Amino acid sequence: RLDLLPGGKGGTLQKQFETLRKHQVDVRVLDYGRPASRNLTITSIELVDRFAVAKAPFRVAATVRNNGPGNAENVEVAFEVRQGARKQAAHLPVQVIDLLEPGQAKRVVAEVTCPSAGSAVVSAAVGGDDLPPDNQADLALAVRNVVTVLVVDGNVNLTDPTENESFFFALSLDPLGGASYGVRPEVISSDNLGGAVFEDYDVVALLDVPDFPIHVDAAATQPKVVHPRLKMLEDYVRGGGGLIIFTGPRINLDFYNGPFHDGGRGLSPLRVKPHLGRRVGSRKFFRLAPGSIASHPVTQVFTTSAAEGVDVTSLVRFSTFTPADEVATGVPEAGTRGVQILARFAGPDSFPALVARRYGKGNVVMVYTTASKRWNDWPADEVGTYAKVVNDMVQHVARPQPEALTARVGETIVHALDEDLLDAKVMLKTPRYPADDLVSLVATREGSRGRIT
């Protein structure tokens, strides 16, 4: 009944009825249900984090609504996760909602850890009311083995690896080796950028990379220089991949302000100027301006500490940075969002220190100093703000959980296919398999990609 009222949640059902009305069908609904003294509904269950990784905790949120006529007190929400061939359930700590008034909805969050990669189902359930069918909701997940990060090092030191631009960055992501924290960094030199396959990774990190390989298009009316690898990176981020950029002494300003920024349409969020630094031996340093730090997942280590009355920005010193030009940002292309300043350097000019932007379905975070100790002492911060920010950047930009794995009754589940899989045989196992037979699906072509429905 509630689904059919104006503003109800049964959008699919309402649309079907509206279609019948357009065909001159008189639709009448007879309500034979007995009045429910207590009726709780799990209206949604969703992944809070961008993805789920095996052996690492991730968060799932369930929303509970009170559809009954009276208050519901001490509502227990039980979570369980099922994984593996037998889908044996692992029960999680029960979350309790103190009070739900009639018509009120509240959200509870549970922390989940899956022991292995593969498919998993997380369920949330409430009990003890007069309408059990809407007391449970399920969320299908594709649990990753690890998050893969391609780290492109533009300033490699062959004699001392600790001087590599990537040393502290990779160490922060995988301090013990073996991807024990759910992240696997793979470091290559910028000289080998031409052979990188971006689609094999969840995140690409460019650390003081001077520029991208060029190609002269002699077939054009007027021969011109193009950057095919840059175009591939743009397509990768636009399709949902993540990009992290650190500057440094080797960056080519012509490239960064040219095709990389592309008048605001490129991956680099802002135009940059020659680096600005203190003289050698100076006791003066640049710092982050505490009041400039935005509330954002990447900077939460600073904002959380500030809320507790601790200013950890005073522990980080920058001798040199790359000034960013906020005036000449250009107009972002369709599918991108404006630049968000996450933190600024202290000083009269308040140059941006960290920025973020949306690019198509992907995210970009850029830091206007080095990832190494070449221009700052940030990696040596004893409080660990550097390692926390690096990991939070990866979490923020990494390719997210595949969409449309879970749907309500009547909703369509769509899965995109690359062109090389268009001729593949697709078989679907329903939740009742093997009691129900496999279902054969046919892919349809949409441009250079395909989809199965």
From TrEMBL:
The signal peptide here is none
Listed name of the protein: CARDB domain-containing protein
Q: Which Gene3D superfamilies match?
A: 3.40.50.880, Immunoglobulins
